[in-house]
Design goal:
Subcellular location: Cell membrane
Family: Belongs to the chemokine-like receptor (CMKLR) family.
Number of domains: 1
Keywords: Cell membrane, G-protein coupled receptor, Glycoprotein, Membrane, Phosphoprotein, Receptor, Transducer, Transmembrane, Transmembrane helix
CATH architecture: Up-down Bundle
Low-confidence stretches: 1-8, 226-230, 320-360
CATH superfamily: Rhodopsin 7-helix transmembrane proteins
Largest sheet: 3 strands, mixed
GO cellular component, one term: cell surface
Shape: globular
Strand order of the largest sheet: 1-2-3
CATH class: Mainly Alpha
Main location: membrane
Order of helices and strands: HEHHHHHHEEHHHHHHH
Structural class: mainly alpha
CATH topology: Rhopdopsin 7-helix transmembrane proteins
């Protein structure tokens, strides 16, 4: 199907500097997404396999990790379409795929962020309310919360479905390209979509994560247990990595929102639009990295188990199910400190320590 045929049903407009019109930006973005695909897909599939095949009794934390790995893994499989899009600088998958892929992408990005937030809240409950943790954060309640979360993310991702369209753009050399990009008819649509995405997908969840970990670390420093330095480092790595890779994406969102407050002829609007359009491909690719970083973090956290447990080291990391386990709650809890994760469903006196050791 050629552009002449498509022009009857797809709007044609001048190229004003779209996200795929900058050679440098699209090349960097494609390389990043290609690496993300190669690392993220097998890494997250390995986590899913480790939990489903190796762990019989799954804790609350393991359920959250399983859902996170599924969301991240599915998101990583979508990157191959965006690699092709950036490499060819034209959309070749049709209008339905244009809307559908970006909708699924947004859904799984929201799911990843919200699951990380749920993990931090779950740890907070186990640390601050150790005696009530089993009732406040039981597996039954968490399953319902997870189902509710998946319903929520499918709803709040609808703007990416509504405001995403396929168009034909003509550049300065009269070459045409198909662009799958947001199509906002009014300035308030731009402000709504990007401001809502940043507030709901970054500011609110990241605030909850930071506050939760501050309260957790403050509580743990008041206890007599000191074998938690490695766990603290893992938690801080998760939080910092999440912020580093997502912040540029949402900064561009806010730049695009700010541009809409200026008139069409304003030089400032032209400058802000140029920054947003030339940076969107790279910042979006960086955001994808956060979804492939988790397997890397888990591998570093459980590297002491690799020689002893082989491919089962990930299951050992999540549940502490190795042959040298002593069988007592206290020894299991202290042993898991080395790994950085454990089952936080216990409500005994070591609850606060065990709770923190639930790596992401």
């Amino acid at each position: 199907m050629d552009h002449q045929t498509l022009s009857y049903s797809i709007p044609e407009e001048e190229d004003d500097g779209s996200a795929v019109s900058n050679d440098y930006s699209t090349t960097i973005g494609a390389l990043i997404l290609g690496l993300v695909f190669l690392l993220g897909v097998p890494g997250n599939l390995f986590i899913v396999w480790s939990i489903l095949a190796r762990i019989r009794r799954r804790s609350v934390t393991t359920l959250l990790i399983l859902n996170l790995a599924c969301a991240d893994g599915f998101l990583m499989t979508l990157t191959i379409f965006f690699v092709v899009y950036l490499a060819m600088q034209t959309w070749v998958f049709g209008e339905v795929m244009c809307k559908g892929l970006f909708y699924l992408c947004n859904t799984n990005m929201y799911a990843s962020i919200f699951l990380i937030t749920l993990m931090s809240v779950h740890r907070l409950v186990a640390v601050v309310f150790p005696r009530k943790a089993s009732s406040l954060a039981s597996r039954k309640i968490v399953r319902r919360v997870i189902i509710g979360m998946w319903v929520l993310v499918t709803v709040i991702s609808i703007p990416s479905l509504v405001f995403r369209d396929l168009s034909i753009q003509i550049d300065e050399t009269n070459e045409t390209r198909l662009v799958c990009a947001p199509n906002h008819t009014l300035p308030r649509h731009v402000r709504f979509q990007y401001a809502f995405e940043t507030v709901a997908g970054f500011i609110l969840p990241y605030t909850v994560i930071i506050v939760s970990y501050v309260l957790i670390l403050r509580r743990l420093r008041q206890t007599k247990f000191r074998r938690k330095v490695r766990s603290e480092k893992l938690i801080l790595a998760i939080v910092v990595m999440f912020g580093i890779f997502w912040l540029p994406y949402h900064v561009i969102n806010m730049i695009q929102v700010a541009a809409e407050w200026y008139t069409e002829e304003s030089p400032m609007r032209e400058k802000l639009d140029h920054i947003a359009n030339t940076s969107r491909a790279v910042t979006s690719a960086l955001a994808f990295i956060s979804s492939c970083a988790n397997p890397v973090l888990y591998t570093f956290a459980g590297k002491s188990y690799i020689k002893q447990n082989g491919f089962a080291f990930m299951a050992r990391l999540f549940e502490g199910t190795s042959s040298d386990q002593t069988g007592t709650k206290k020894s299991r809890g202290m042993g898991r400190d080395t790994a950085g994760t454990s089952n936080v469903d216990s409500t005994n006196s070591t609850g606060p320590v065990i709770a923190l050791q639930n790596g992401k």
